[in-house]
Write a structure and sequence with these properties.
The chain has 170 residues and is mainly β. It has one domain (31-169): Glucose Permease (Domain IIA), CATH 2.70.70. Helix content is 11%, strand content 38%. A hairpin with a 5-residue loop joins β5 and β6. It is globular, with a radius of gyration of 20 Å.
């Protein structure tokens, strides 16, 4: 009888499917710009995926989310990681900086390392990179963009590390 009364007067629990957006923070302090403004066609045309670029104000990149380092390029200019929720990210310090062959970069992580948002990934001498003739605009790419129905980017603003720059929605 009690079960019957609960059915009549009790609130029915509705199972709502909670949409969980994944937040990607800024790995670098600086001004966020759209990829379309990056003077490199591979990034500007989003060939590698959607994302943003940051014009660094300091020479340090941190993990933009919790995850695992999947690749540290031998040339130390780029790091890939997979977030705990499955986003595949590429943090690329500068343009054509692969040609520096690791000079001016000090990587703090290795492939397979688990990282927390804010952990330092790499430090770089931005002034020396620019003196060598390279731009330090740094793309942050979601390499598995096709896995998301919506990718929202937040550009045209100054950010500190971990300020939201990308929201992902599956």
């Amino acid at each position: 009888m009690l079960a019957g009364l609960k059915g009549l007067f009790g609130k029915k629990e509705e199972k709502k499917e909670e949409k969980r957006k994944e937040i990607i923070g800024a790995p670098i302090k600086g001004k966020v710009i759209p990829l379309s403004e990056v003077p490199d066609e591979a990034f500007a045309q989003e060939i590698l995926g959607k994302g943003v670029a940051i014009c660094p104000e300091e020479g340090r990149a941190v993990a933009p989310c919790n995850g695992e380092i999947t690749l540290v390029f031998d040339t130390k200019h780029a790091i890939s990681l997979v977030s705990e929720q499955g986003a595949e990210l590429l943090i690329h310090i500068g343009l054509d900086t692969v040609n520096l062959r690791g000079e001016h970069f000090d990587v703090k992580v290795s492939q397979g390392d688990k990282v927390k948002a804010g952990d330092v990934l790499v430090e770089f001498a931005a002034d020396k990179i620019e003196q060598a003739g390279y731009q330090i605009i740094s793309p942050v790419i979601i390499c598995n963009s096709a896995d998301y129905k919506e990718i929202e980017t937040f550009t045209g603003k100054e950010v500190n590390p971990l300020d939201t720059v990308i929201e992902l929605d599956k």
